[in-house]
Specification:
single chain; 142 residues; alpha+beta; HIT family, subunit A; five-stranded antiparallel sheet; 3 helices; binds adenosine monophosphate; binds zinc ion
C-alpha cells in the first residue's frame, strides 16, 4: 500500500466504491466518471505507479482480469465491443498513479457510450517518418 493512493485505499476498503471483482492479485471497480455504461477499472492489489514499473506477474494478472470482464460486459451488458486503455504518465492523461486498465464497454447506442476517438482515423502519416521511427526503436529492442 502506498501513502495517499486512492486506489490502494479502494483495495483496502477505506474509500466507498462499487466493487465488481477481486482475486488474489487484482481488484476491479466502477469508474466514478464513466465514459460509457459499465466503464470500470482493473488494478493490481500491489501498488505500482504505472506501466513502466508494474512487475510482469501483476501486469499479466490485471490483463487477464480485464479480458474476463470484457467478455462478461459483452454477455451481460449487451456491449457491442470493448476498449482497454492505459494511460502512462501525466502527459499521456494518467491522473491516478496506481497502474490501472480501463475496461470501457462500447455500444452502437450512443446514449450508453460517450467515448470518442482522440485521433483522426484514415489520415496517413509520412512514410519516411514512420520508417525512421521503426528503425530507431527496433535495434533498441534486440
Ligand atoms: P487515468 O486518468 O487513466 O489515470 O484514470 C483515472 C480514472 O480513475 C479516471 O477515469 C477517474 O474517473 C477514476 N477515479 C478517480 N478516483 C476514483 C474513485 N475514487 N473511484 C472510482 N474511480 C475513480
Ligand atoms: Zn496504490
Amino acid at each position: 500500500m502506498s501513502d495517499q493512493c486512492v486506489f490502494c485505499e479502494i483495495v483496502a476498503g477505506k474509500v466507498p466504491h462499487a466493487k465488481v471483482f477481486e482475486d488474489d492479485m487484482t481488484y476491479a471497480f466502477m469508474d466514478i466518471n464513466p465514459a460509457s455504461d459499465g466503464h470500470l477499472l482493473v488494478v493490481p492489489k500491489r501498488h505500482s505507479k504505472d506501466l513502466l514499473e508494474i512487475p510482469a506477474d501483476d501486469l499479466t494478472a490485471v490483463t487477464l482480469t480485464a479480458q474476463r470482464i470484457a467478455k462478461t460486459a459483452i454477455k451481460e451488458l449487451g456491449a457491442d465491443g470493448v476498449n482497454l486503455l492505459n494511460c502512462c504518465g501525466a502527459d499521456a492523461w494518467q491522473t491516478v498513479f496506481h497502474f490501472h486498465l480501463h475496461v470501457v464497454p462500447r455500444y452502437v447506442d450512443k446514449a450508453k457510450d460517450r467515448l470518442v476517438l482522440p485521433w483522426q482515423p484514415g489520415v496517413s502519416g509520412y512514410a519516411d517518418t514512420i520508417t525512421a521511427l521503426a528503425d530507431q526503436l527496433s535495434p533498441a529492442l534486440d
